[in-house]
């Protein structure tokens, strides 16, 4: 039997015209758990790039000891890092990925050629 998945919606309000960090949590119930035989695994996805609020900026996996917390005044989510065990991503103004820092702390940098202008040739 496949694990059952529940996807919980974004946990913060997004005001019109502003960028607010949002959090989505995907919870999987795995039959390999101890006790009653069910293990809960929650992966947390952080969204809220200054470029586009729908771009994913962070992921905290179930085996991580990292903690996500939300400021009560600004409603911005941050990753409280004990050991850097999360993935974070940044984007350029065109919404293209510029850096990805993996769970080992290795930063992968992406670069792009200048945009090509396509013209119709008569």
Summarize the structure.
The chain is an all-beta fold.
What does this protein look like?
It is a single chain. The chain has 122 residues and is an all-beta fold. It has one domain (4-109). It is 0% helix and 40% strand. The protein contains no helices and nine strands. The protein has strands at 4-8, 22-30, 39-47, 56-60, 67-70, 77-80, 87-91, 97-101, 107-109. The strands form two sheets. A seven-stranded antiparallel sheet has the order 1-2-3-4-7-8-9, with no helix packed on it. A two-stranded antiparallel sheet has the order 5-6. A hairpin with a 5-residue loop joins strand 7 (87-91) and strand 8.
Spell out the key features of this protein:
single chain, about 120 residues, 7-stranded antiparallel beta sheet, two-stranded antiparallel ribbon, about 0% helix, elongated, disordered N terminus
Using DSSP, what is the number of strands? Answer: 9
Strand content: 35-45%
Mean pLDDT: 74
Q: Give the overall shape.
A: elongated
Unreliable stretches covering 5 or more consecutive residues? 1-20
Largest sheet: 7 strands, antiparallel
- Level of helix content? under 10%
Question: Helix count, per DSSP?
Answer: 0
Show the helix and strand layout:
Blueprint: E1 4-8, E2 22-30, E3 39-47, E4 56-60, E5 67-70, E6 77-80, E7 87-91, E8 97-101, E9 107-109
Antiparallel strand pairs: 1-2, 2-3, 3-4, 4-7, 5-6, 7-8, 8-9
């Amino acid at each position: 039997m496949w694990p059952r998945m529940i996807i919980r919606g974004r946990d913060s309000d997004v005001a019109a015209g502003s960028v607010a960090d949002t959090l989505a949590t995907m919870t999987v119930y795995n039959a390999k758990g101890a006790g009653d035989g069910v293990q809960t695994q929650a992966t947390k996805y952080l969204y809220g790039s200054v470029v586009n609020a729908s771009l994913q900026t962070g992921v905290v996996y179930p085996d991580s000891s990292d903690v996500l917390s939300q400021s009560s005044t600004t409603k911005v989510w941050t990753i409280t890092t004990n050991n850097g065990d999360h993935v974070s991503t940044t984007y350029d103004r065109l919404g293209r990925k510029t850096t990805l820092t993996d769970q080992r702390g290795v930063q992968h940098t992406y670069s792009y050629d200048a945009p090509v202008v396509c013209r119709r040739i008569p």
